[in-house]
């Protein structure tokens, strides 16, 4: 039902209660875009949380491995530079189950989806120290991740 309203200048204004179909469709379109954007952000936030959790777990594994190695005796085989490459081999992550192979990590273990490698350099950076680099690698949605930590252990005489 239409109501006619006269303004103070004698002009007739058309006024009807409610909304037209076009106004409702425009409002639904705007609301839909907002909901889709929110849903997209939620998916991205979930993926980011999973990536952060994976990296945090890898960092924890690296820190745990370093703490275990620090408690070993100076001559323990797990603290040996198995392939003799010293400082040059601190970043290596290849491993063929023959630790004497040059270009390989000195030691390796697997923990779930994570591969943990560690390399030892004797007398680096100074005499009577061992530098240990722990590298944790993993695959997530086809992308390789990597975290590394380094610690220098002094020989206590």
Number of helices: 1
Largest sheet: 4 strands, antiparallel
Shape: rod-shaped
What is the number of domains? Answer: 1
SSE series: EEHEEEE
Could you give the distance between the termini? 100 Å
Proportion of residues in extended strands? 25-35%
State the oligomer. Answer: single chain
Integer average pLDDT: 88
- pLDDT < 50 runs, ≥5 residues: none
Spatial extent as radius of gyration: 32 Å
How many extended strands?
A: 6
Broad structural category:
alpha+beta
Helix content: 25-40%
> What's the arrangement of strands in the largest beta sheet?
3-4-5-6
Task: Write a concise keyword list for the protein shown above.
157 residues, alpha+beta, four-stranded antiparallel beta sheet, two-stranded antiparallel sheet, 6 strands, 32% helix, rod-shaped
Description:
- The chain has 157 residues and is an alpha+beta fold.
- The chain has one domain.
- Helices cover 32% and strands 29% of the residues.
- The chain is built from 1 helix and 6 strands, in the order ββαββββ.
- The strands form 2 sheets. It has a 4-stranded antiparallel beta sheet, with helices on one face. A two-stranded antiparallel ribbon has the order 1-2.
- Strand 5 and strand 6 form a beta hairpin.
- The longest helix has 50 residues.
